[in-house]
Design brief:
Largest sheet: 9 strands, mixed
Low-confidence stretches: none
CATH class: Alpha Beta
Number of strands: 9
Shape: globular
Number of domains: 1
Number of helices: 8
Distance between the termini: 26 Å
Oligomer: single chain
Mean pLDDT: 97
Order of helices and strands: EHEEHHEHEHEHEHEHE
């Protein structure tokens, strides 16, 4: 598998958030296809575990907002989760769209040569287990990436415990620390986890934080950037990746 480092950084600058931002039901195969139709070659998605250990795509801990289900997603079996409608909440044209497994999305990306940013999104209390299982699945699914001249996915998380477990399970896969604040020790934590990137709320990047990250050898990515002025500010700062909902506005 081709090694990703901050020096050997293959990923496109523009990354479609949860597949296609808000133009399709997030974290579904339909969203990925729509994002791809807008010219995007890299996608961000959220992966968590069912109660029987199947990695699948969902952002929230609970099911109500983006599916026809109720309750905590991680407490339900994949057999139950796979029957849910994950499209009708968005619009009638996506009615019946299912929740995809991580394997489904991996195959779509591998077959089409797309890049993937996997946010490890554990249910509460499952931080280490989710990091371990998602990393193991990613390593297996991308094991032939070299032969196909493809690069591995970037594993990111807000939870250092998840990244630590991913690092132990698949140390060759690149990692990124997600930040919603620049909490004390963020840079040191990313170094200990041997991350390749820091992924910040875009408002956190300024000359100082970008300089700190780059000086420590990290690539700098931003979420979720939906305005032209914000994107231009990040480009002017010299950051490396922009995660956006506005796949209709920004042409990658």
């Amino acid at each position: 598998m081709q090694t990703v480092t901050s020096e050997n950084w293959p990923y496109p600058r523009w990354i479609a958030h949860r597949g296609a931002g808000k133009l399709a039901p997030e974290n579904t195969l339909a969203a990925f296809k729509l994002g791809a139709s807008q010219g995007y070659r890299m996608f961000e998605c959220d992966v968590k575990l069912s109660s029987d250990g199947v990695p699948f795509l969902l952002h929230d801990s609970t099911l109500e907002r983006t599916t026809s289900g109720t309750g905590i997603a991680g407490e339900q079996t994949w057999a139950n989760l796979s029957q849910l409608d994950a499209g009708s909440w968005h619009s009638r044209s996506f009615a019946g769209e299912p929740l995809p497994t991580f394997a489904n999305i991996a195959q779509f990306c591998l077959k089409n040569g797309y890049f993937l940013n996997i946010e490890i999104k554990p249910s509460p209390g499952q931080e280490a287990e989710t990091g371990k299982i998602v990393a193991e699945h990613a390593a297996r699914l991308w094991k032939d990436a070299d032969r196909l001249d493809l690069f591995p996915p970037l594993l990111t998380s807000f939870r250092p415990e998840s990244l630590e477990a991913a690092q132990a399970a698949a140390p060759h896969l690149p990692r990124g620390l997600l930040l919603d604040t620049l909490w004390k020790g963020w840079l040191e934590t990313a170094l200990v986890l041997d991350c390749s990137a820091i992924v910040c709320n875009h408002a956190l990047w300024d000359t100082s934080s970008v300089t700190q990250a780059k000086s420590a050898g990290f690539r700098s990515l931003s979420y979720t950037v939906n305005d032209e002025w914000a994107a231009q500010r990040l480009l002017d700062l010299g950051t490396d990746g922009v995660i956006t909902d506005r796949v209709d506005l920004f042409v990658p």
